[in-house]
Amino acid sequence: MTDKHVTVLGTGSMGSALAGAFLAAGYRTHVWNRSHARTAPLVSAGAIAHERIADAVAASPVIIASLTTFAATGESLRGVAELAGRDLITVNSGTPSQAREFAAFATGAGARFLGGAIKNVPAAVGNPDALLYFGGDREVFADQEQTLRVLGGDLEFLGPEPDLAALYESAVGATLLPTLLGFFEGAAILAARGLPARTMVPHSTKWLQMIESLLPIMAAEIDSKDYTRLGSSIEVFHTAIDGDAHLAAESGVDLPWHGPVHELLRRAVAEGRGEQSVTALIELLRTGQ
In this predicted structure, what is the pLDDT of residue 1? Predict the structure, then answer.
């Protein structure tokens, strides 16, 4: 029997993927979920389900918490004395301040804390290129690195601050919904002409690759506040505002989410930033700085 034990708290789509990866790697995998019935598929695969969270925590030296939020994790673990002396690693959602608050709770309960984020979908868990990053207790990261590598081959320790994973999760994740909305909008425009969304995929992929190639330039402009090197000005985007309205009318596609972006462009031009690179828009986003 293996001497490698791990406990996964929360068996939703991501938690089930984590537990499945540990089972595939030969770990003695303990699971707990607020709705105990949801652990059944993992039990069928070889996991050990516990009805009491205290028993699940006591069963392993390392606890991976994959509940929805820090608040949900804290509420579930409140009063669990068995946390003392264990490594508690979170991969749930939340803000940096919530991560700091939870870290204080975890260390106050006698656990070592590491806050993490998985930058991919559940189906990608365990893949060599799956990215996971962490902030918090460096010794936990070092001691549990091989266990964490079961979940993905691309691991990064961001630093000792317990909220760094949540911070980067918020910063990097900010691109997700606008990108998806842009794709959905494009698909709707094509659908208005009776064209399938799949015909757009090769072109969208190339477009995203082009954006990827520009990210280092844009980051350099933002860090230096020298908005002159990109070659794509705010004025270029500003002059396209009327075109968006015409496109919406022509295609019958509702584009209300463009409104705040248009307002940002108008403000930038009013401030005399029209000739600056579009990256200068960050100056309008830096409220109170």
Answer: 46
